[in-house]
Each structure stands twice: as structure tokens, then as C-alpha cells.
Design a protein that fits this description.
By secondary structure, this protein is an all-alpha fold. The chain has three helices and no strands. Helix 1 runs antiparallel to helix 3. The longest helix is centred in the last third of the chain and has 38 residues, at 50-87. The N and C termini lie far apart (58 Å).
Length: 94
């Protein structure tokens, strides 16, 4: 069996408003949870409570995701600032 080698380089990862995307998703999970709460008995009668608790878990895991992506975003900005500071010549040498 021949070793597989890529035919082209992998593309750069897409960057976008990651914090806003995760925050929006978390809000949607919590909204779905709150919308389903009045129908808790209906879900319980049909043995479908996992729908309600899946939305709750999505919301709480989204909170962890928000914490994570905010830290990542801060670290990326700090890294870019450090690289810009290293690339800039010292103040007395221009």
C-alpha cells in the first residue's frame, strides 16, 4: 500500500466572529430550553424529556464555550500585538 501524500496544501482555517457565533448559539439553546419548559408535562408523558434537557445542556456547555473562545480571542490578539512590537524598530533607530 502506497503512502498517501497530499496533492496540495491545506487551506488556512477560516476566521470570523467566533465569540459572537458561540454566544448566539448559546442564546438559541437557552431560548429553546425556556420555550419547552411550559410543555414539560407533555414531554414527560411521551418519554421525550431528553429534548428539554438537551437544550439545557447545550446552553450550559455554550457558557463554557463562550469562556473558551473569549480566552482564545484574547490570546490571539496578544500574539499579534507581540509580533507587531517585535517587527517595529526601536524608537531611537529609525
Amino acid at each position: 500500500m502506497a503512502k498517501w501524500t497530499p496533492k496540495h496544501e491545506a487551506p488556512e482555517p477560516l476566521e470570523g466572529p467566533i465569540v459572537a457565533t458561540v454566544t448566539g448559539g448559546t442564546i438559541i439553546w437557552f431560548a429553546l430550553f425556556l420555550v419547552q419548559l411550559p410543555f414539560y408535562g407533555w414531554f414527560a408523558d411521551r418519554d421525550m424529556l431528553w429534548w428539554v434537557w438537551t437544550c439545557a445542556a447545550g446552553g450550559f456547555l455554550g457558557l463554557i464555550g463562550i469562556w473558551y473562545v473569549r480566552g482564545r480571542d484574547t490570546a490571539l490578539k496578544r500574539h499579534v500585538a507581540a509580533q507587531a512590537q517585535q517587527a517595529a524598530p526601536p524608537a531611537g533607530e529609525a
